[in-house]
Write a structure and sequence with these properties.
150 residues, alpha+beta, GMP Synthetase, Chain A, domain 3, 2 domains, three-stranded antiparallel sheet, 2 helices, 8 strands, elongated
């Protein structure tokens, strides 16, 4: 099995450590030397100029779905020229009343090249198989909806 890791780094940059005012800025050190500036979402006293965990989860799921979709398409000898997505995440509460990302909607748009283009049913089947096999999606309790676009 594969294993993945990152390094997360935060330090106190204010003189106090008050819930209302502590700085939520931090760094995600990813593989390959990439560093992402993270914070809480602005609604939770974070910096709007930085990525937040909810966006990161949304990006991870969207990226995983895309990579799985592309792999399935390639195995079926379909040529994909372009793939884009405008996913959305909605916060809500779980059955225990705790905040969670309650629903994620993936809204992929795929442009095929080559001579073979799947019809609408075949395209939905590709997305269904990608959803069933996406590692990140299989790790979530969140409801994930698919709304492929033309």
């Amino acid at each position: 099995m594969s294993e993945f890791s990152i390094h997360l780094e935060w330090h106190r940059s204010t003189t106090d450590f008050d819930y209302q005012s502590f700085d939520r800025s931090h760094l995600w050190h990813l593989a390959g030397g990439q560093t992402v500036r993270g914070s809480a979402a602005p609604e939770y006293s974070g910096n709007s100029e930085m990525s937040n965990p909810e966006e990161a989860l949304l990006a991870a799921l969207s990226s995983c779905h895309m990579l799985t979709f592309l792999s399935i398409a390639a195995l079926r000898k379909l040529v994909v020229d372009r793939y884009e997505d405008d996913p959305r995440a909605e916060l809500g509460k779980n059955e225990k009343g705790k905040m969670m990302i309650a629903q994620i909607t993936l809204r992929p748009r795929v442009t095929f090249g080559g001579t073979v283009h799947p019809d609408a049913d075949a395209l939905l089947d590709l997305h269904r198989k990608a959803k069933e096999n996406c590692f990140v999606g299989n790790s979530l309790l969140t409801r994930v909806l698919l709304e492929p676009r033309d």
